[in-house]
Design goal:
The complex is a heterodimer of chains A (418) and B (376). Chain A has helices at 17-37, 40-64, 70-96, 121-134, 165-174, 176-184, 187-191, 200-227, 234-260, 279-288, 297-302, 309-314, 323-336, 346-361, 366-369, 375-387, 390-417; strands at residues 292-294, 343-345. By secondary structure, chain A is mainly alpha-helical. In chain A, strands 1-2 form a two-stranded parallel ribbon. The longest helix of chain A is centred in the middle third of the chain and has 28 residues, at 200-227. The radius of gyration of chain A is 24 Å and the shape is globular. The two termini of chain A are 27 Å apart. Chain B has 376 residues and is an alpha/beta fold. Chain B has nine helices and 17 strands. Chain B has a six-stranded antiparallel β-sheet with strand order 4-3-6-1-2-5. In chain B, strands 12, 13, 14, 15, 16 and 17 form a six-stranded mixed β-sheet that branches. A five-stranded parallel β-sheet of chain B has the order 9-8-7-10-11, with helices on both faces. The radius of gyration of chain B is 24 Å and the shape is globular. Classes of the chains: A mainly alpha (418), B alpha/beta (376). The A-B interface holds A 38-44, 51, 54-55, 58, 61, 98, 101-107, 109, 111-112, 114-116, 212, 215-216, 218-219, 222-224, 227, 317 and B 23, 26-31, 35-36, 39, 88, 90-94, 291-292, 294, 311, 314, 316.
Chain lengths: 418, 376
């Protein structure tokens, strides 16, 4: 990925300022239509989902009380995993976006909702709703790009420690909820400040997060296993809860990676964003900075409709059940203005996002220029770059760039011949 | 220096019940136990107060009685009182206030009688679309419009339109007793037309059996009721204790009439009298400063209640009757000025001069009269 302004051919070069404003007008019209038609069936939808989720979770936990029996363990763990995924994705994320605030039901409202996650609702609403959704894909402003622990852009200088980023990313996926909690607290930034100088806000937020984590852990790893002691199911229940959290974390991490990470999703330079970004410009940034996952209705439900990431980023507070319905119109708008509507299946998007993590963990051009025949030399070069000093690295990088250019040339020739 | 004394009287919950509850709470966090129990038994004691519709009885083409089974925590009511009801219409929860139209019933149900107002979202929904089994949100009964105990020897009840609703509750209660009350009751019941009159047959039956004397007046037959003729309709007017409920015009006229004769009158007003603010006096920016409002700023035009403006902006506001009587919507104003939509009265809060808690204002009947900040 290279920020849109540094690309040789910008994907929006063909749009006039009038086009961009017109896109804004057309998207606003789609948005207003949904708002005007929100009603009873939407309310019934979210209430039904909440009801199903609660019954599924309670039922699964009840089954896990006898999880010493293998079929009970399997059924309970699958049920609990699905319940936790629904709770985080289709319910928690969307309720906290205020998608259901119009119902004026204090029980399903962004100001009162708390979710089954290590991060507090308040912390998450700030880092996600405010920061990420406002500054989507602006390098240096949107920390969702790489979560502050990864190299996500060719323009970021490569260091040997980035070689480990596929591993960090995998560990982050396994313990994603804690990663998000740390991220909401801006833990890295705040812990580097001496203890006595840390802000009161940070201390308060950290206390709240620790309390939340304690309650969550008590539920999953003390109370529920404890209740299963009479049937001798303490350990199986503990393992089932751990598994359900792991499954939920891996799943939500995968879905979220698909939103902005796959190859071809655009990023933006801080300096390229006008101070008074117009509504049209903001919309276009959301359009190019997000990617969708294609799939079945069940798939959309399990991703919390984040499979419609493009629609979600355009209209973060429209009810999630309506994204599928507006998607064809949004897609038509992309076509009309000759923009890339980034959509692929879940395996393709997850694969693409992981490919990028691996590619950027390596020096620019390394992965592209490596093939079976030159692998030994390439590995030797990588070894040199990893162990050598800055000068060695720069020289090796220059060679890689040269190699990449030549290969790029060859590819063009092949394409021309074909 | 004082030490914060631990109260001896209330030992921290050690009972088995409270221990079990705490364990259950920690097993379902971040949900509350009540969220879970609500899935199975929404009317149990300890739940948020709700009522399930058990019957919808049409009264006239434009009115219906809704019989509700209230949750276990319903504490009962006195006839003449009203109840706040939260109804989901087109997915949106809206709160309105209706009089209870029965005395306490042996089946524990309560009833409200609703007249569909033209353009009224909730009233039309309840009259035309409410169905058995539907759940409504409830608040406890409130209101001072109740008969005194012991009852006076002679009573005059004056009602206009749906103003009959608290009065029918009183009458049903009085006449459901094994021993008929001694009180001599006259009911002057005013309606636009005969067909619009709610409880027509029931009231006529009470009249026919001699339990009350019913004086019916219909605008299309008798013309608008001139309160000056009240003394002709009710010759012993001065001996009677008077209660009235109905439209503001009728109540205003009655109040004047009774005051002139030196008589007491208890009234119940359903709708506030909304005054249009004088030109150039209304409107302003309202800033919500608390966590719920989260710094929302609203442009309020001087005719819209702050409550409506905030709700349109997506803020979940405390609300109740929406007519200035229940005080459920009260929030502290830290700074600025608001105008009471009913009477134009100005309320001002000046930092440093007003108390640390600000000035409590009712958001449902207040509009901005300049910039103001409200803690929510």
């Amino acid at each position: 990925m290279t920020t849109i302004t540094r690309k040789p051919e910008s994907p929006i070069a063909h749009l006039t300022p009038e086009d961009i404003e017109q896109i804004g007008v057309e998207l606003d019209a789609i948005r207003q239509e949904v708002i005007d038609s929100r009603g009873e069936s939407d309310a019934a939808y979210i209430r039904r989902i909440v009801d199903v989720q609660r019954k599924l979770e309670l039922g699964s936990r009840a089954v896990l009380l006898v999880s010493v029996l293998p079929p009970a363990w399997i059924a309970g763990t699958i049920g609990l995993s699905i319940a936790k995924i629904l709770e985080n994705m289709e319910i928690g994320h969307n309720v906290m976006h205020g998608q259901w605030d119009w119902m004026r039901d204090p029980k399903i409202h962004s100001t009162t909702w708390e979710w089954d996650n290590a991060s507090t609702a308040d912390g998450w609403k700030h880092s996600h709703n405010e920061v990420h959704h406002t500054y989507t894909n602006i390098v240096g402003k949107d920390n969702d790009l790489g979560y502050g622990i990864m190299r996500v852009d060719e323009d970021q200088r490569w260091y040997p420690m980035y070689l480990g980023q596929p591993l960090w990313n995998f560990l982050n996926a396994c313990f994603f909820e804690y990663g998000i909690a740390a991220y909401d607290l801006e833990l890295g930034k705040n812990l580097s400040v001496p203890k006595e100088k840390r802000s009161e806000t940070f201390k308060k937020n950290a206390r709240n997060t620790l309390r939340k984590i304690r309650k969550q852990a008590t539920k999953d790893y003390v109370v529920n296993p404890g209740l299963a002691i009479p049937t001798g199911s303490f350990l199986p229940t503990l393992a089932a809860n751990f598994t359900a959290n792991l499954v939920r974390n891996l799943w939500s991490h995968s879905v979220i990676m698909c939103g902005h990470f796959p190859e071809g999703v655009e990023t933006f330079e801080k300096a390229s964003i006008p101070e008074n970004e117009t509504r049209g410009e903001w919309y276009v940034r959301q359009m190019l900075g997000s990617a969708n996952i294609s799939g079945s209705k069940f798939m959309h439900l399990m991703t919390g409709n984040l499979s419609h990431q493009i629609e979600h980023h355009l209209f973060p507070d429209l009810p999630s059940n309506r994204y599928a319905e507006v998607a064809p119109r949004v897609k038509a708008l992309f076509e009309k203005y000759d923009l890339n509507y980034h959509e692929a299946s879940l395996p393709a998007q997850v694969g693409s996002a992981w490919h990028k993590v691996v590619r950027l963990s390596l020096p620019n051009g390394w992965l592209a220029t490596t093939n079976r025949s030159n692998a030994p030399q390439q590995l030797a070069l990588l070894w040199k770059m990893t162990t050598g000093d800055r000068k060695t690295r720069r020289a090796a990088q220059a060679r890689l760039d040269q190699l990449a250019r030549r290969q790029g040339g060859e590819r063009t020739e092949v394409a021309a011949a074909a | 220096m004082t030490t914060a004394a631990e109260p001896f009287a209330a030992p921290r919950g050690r009972s088995l019940r409270s221990v079990l509850r705490r364990v259950a709470e920690s097993a379902v966090t971040p949900l509350e136990l009540d969220d879970v129990l609500d899935v199975f038994h929404p009317l149990r004691s300890g739940a948020e107060l709700r009522g399930r519709i058990v019957q919808v009885l049409p009264e006239t083409p434009e009115s219906a009685t809704i019989v509700l089974k209230p949750g276990r925590d319903w504490t009962g009511h006195v006839p003449g009182q009203y109840v706040r009801v939260g109804v989901d219409v087109e997915g949106v929860r809206l709160w309105r206030t209706y009089s209870l139209t029965h005395g306490p019933r042996p089946d524990g149900c309560v009833s409200i009688t609703v007249k569909a107002i033209p353009g009224g979202v909730v009233s039309n929904h309840l009259v035309h679309s409410a169905r058995k089994g539907q759940m409504l949100q409830l608040a406890q009964a409130e209101g001072e419009f109740v008969l005194p105990q012991p009852l006076p020897a002679k009573l005059l009840l004056v009602t206009g339109g749906s103003g009959i609703t608290p009065v029918i509750g009183m009458l049903r209660n009085l006449h459901s007793k094994a021993v008929a009350p001694e009180t001599d009751i006259v009911l002057v019941h005013v309606n636009a037309t005969e067909s619009a009159a709610i409880f027509r047959a029931e009231l006529r039956a009470l009249d026919a059996s001699g339990r009350i004397r019913l004086v019916e007046r219909f605008d299309d037959q008798h013309g608008l009721l001139d309160v000056a003729v009240l003394a002709e309709l009710v010759p012993d007017l001065d001996e009677r204790l008077s209660y009235a409920c109905g439209p503001a015009g009728l109540l205003d006229a009655l109040e004047e009439h009774h005051a002139a004769r030196g008589l007491d009158l208890t009234t119940e007003r359903f709708r506030p009298v909304v005054l249009a603010p004088a030109d150039g006096e209304g409107g302003g920016t309202v800033t919500l400063t608390g966590t719920a409002g989260a710094g929302t700023t609203l442009e309020v035009d001087g005719t819209t209640p702050i409550l409506d403006a905030a709700e349109q902006a997506g803020v979940l506001m405390p609300s109740g009757c929406r007519m200035g009587i229940c005080m459920a919507c009260v929030l502290p104003m830290r700074e600025g000025a608001v105008r009471d939509l009913r009477n134009g009265a100005l309320t001002v809060a000046v930092p440093g001069e007003t108390g640390p808690q600000g000035v409590p204002i009712q958001t449902c009947i207040s509009t901005a009269a300049g910039a103001c900040s409200i803690d929510h």
